Amino acid sequence: MTADKNRRESAVARRASRCAGMRPMSEHGRAETIDGAHLPSQSRDMAFAHLLLSSYQRLTGSSLCPPGFLHTGETVRWLYEAAPFGLLAHGTGADPIFVYANAVAQKCFEYSWEEFVQLPSRLSADSEAQGDREAFVRSVAEHGFVSGYRGMRLAKSGRRFWIEDVTMWNLVDADGSYHGQAAVFRSWTDGREG
């Protein structure tokens, strides 16, 4: 029985590493990893997009992106470049690191892709907002998803801003394996406002 459990855990770890996050494509259609190595990314990116979309659909009962994109290669590009919302995801570690941030999220938080995918997600909020953020993350872990959140966040420059109309959900695949959490924020305002 232990050997079966070890094989299952190993399979989950392999799936999680394949779904480590969509990376921005270079002009040659290849993703650049943090250490500068190039890896073919289309299948990994599609697998991660499927995880994002399917877990969101399963947990919330609604779709995250337009139906025409759900099963096409355009999904990856749309989520990263054209989505009208910020989209973030972090992994499963004890101090989870971001594995994904679309263009809107990068602009709001003022981090490049390379900086984001090395950043512990807790650092997206300043010390004063840590308790609120941690309670939100725990609630999502317990309930699968939470909608309607509004929270203060911190950009790289130290600028504070509100993320609003936030839905955060557990990234759980069809087999029930947990891969982290993702959040979509549909609006954002300057921290000096309300």
Percentage of residues in DSSP E strands: 25-35%
User: Shape, please?
Assistant: globular
- Give the beta-strand count: 7
Q: Work out the helix count.
A: 6
If you compute it from the alpha carbons, what radius of gyration comes out, rounded to the nearest whole angstrom?
16 Å
Biggest beta-sheet profile: 5 strands, antiparallel
Question: In whole angstroms, how far apart are the ends?
Answer: 56 Å
Strand arrangement within the widest β-sheet reads 4-3-7-6-5
Structural class: alpha+beta
The unreliable regions are 1-21, 23-40
Mean pLDDT: 79
Element-by-element helix/strand order: HEEHHEEHHHEEE
How would you describe this structure to a colleague?
By secondary structure, the protein is of the alpha+beta class. It is built from 6 helices and 7 strands; from the N terminus they run H-E-E-H-H-E-E-H-H-H-E-E-E. The strands form 2 sheets. It has a 5-stranded antiparallel sheet, sandwiched between helices. The longest helix is centred in the first third of the chain and has 19 residues, at 42-60. Mean pLDDT is 79; it is low at 1-21 and 23-40.
